[in-house]
Request: fold
Amino acid sequence: MRAFGFPGIGYHMRLKEKSHSASESTLHIAEPQPLSLSSRAYQTILNRILRGIVPMGGELSRRKLSVELGMSILPVSEALQRLQNEGIVETQPRVGTRVRIPAPRDMRARYEIREALECQTARLFCRHATSADLAEVLKVAKQVDALFNRCFSRPKNDPDFLYLVQETHTRFHMQIAEVAGCGALRQMLEANQVLTFNWLYYVAASRPSLPAGFHYELAQALCQHDEEVADHAMRAHIRFGLNGVLSCIIPELAAAAACR
Reply:
């Protein structure tokens, strides 16, 4: 099973089997390549944003970050430029760099991209999922729902637990994409950062509640091997999430904008 996560969470290890004789082989695990300074800075800054440590509208000072991370301003600037290219932060003259406050139309656009991509992964999942895949997606869906239920009863200032919730949520959706078997489609999900933005909006919206069994019901629909049922269930799932986030986040965005 492939490991999933947000940018900066873990790394993929390459395994190489080398034969020494007809009856003997040795499994070699390649050492992970060290991250560049700009990649380290990128992962650390993104991690802070996704944990809610730096909120929407929050300032990101190059000088302060370079001191905190123990590196020069150059790799920090490269990391912030990458985040700006991805639409997560923005830089304005004489204002500096801040976590971008999106307009509702921008959020809708992100969810529309997610809906188009994930509804197709749902259809392909129905075509290619094995019995083991079905069992796994149901198991992870239960885990996601259990974590969300615990999330609603915990203090809002627990970024580590919230990080765990959203990491597991991402693994659930990326597992569906992996089983779908279309590498290009999975890469588009990753390249468009749709699940990263889903996480970011959810944190900024102060964790809107979800129905009981929200992800398990989606998993059950996917397990019916009916593409129309799967498409409809995924579409409803994503649109419900958008409406819930929008209803909670608009006051938060207005308050953040007023503080700028």
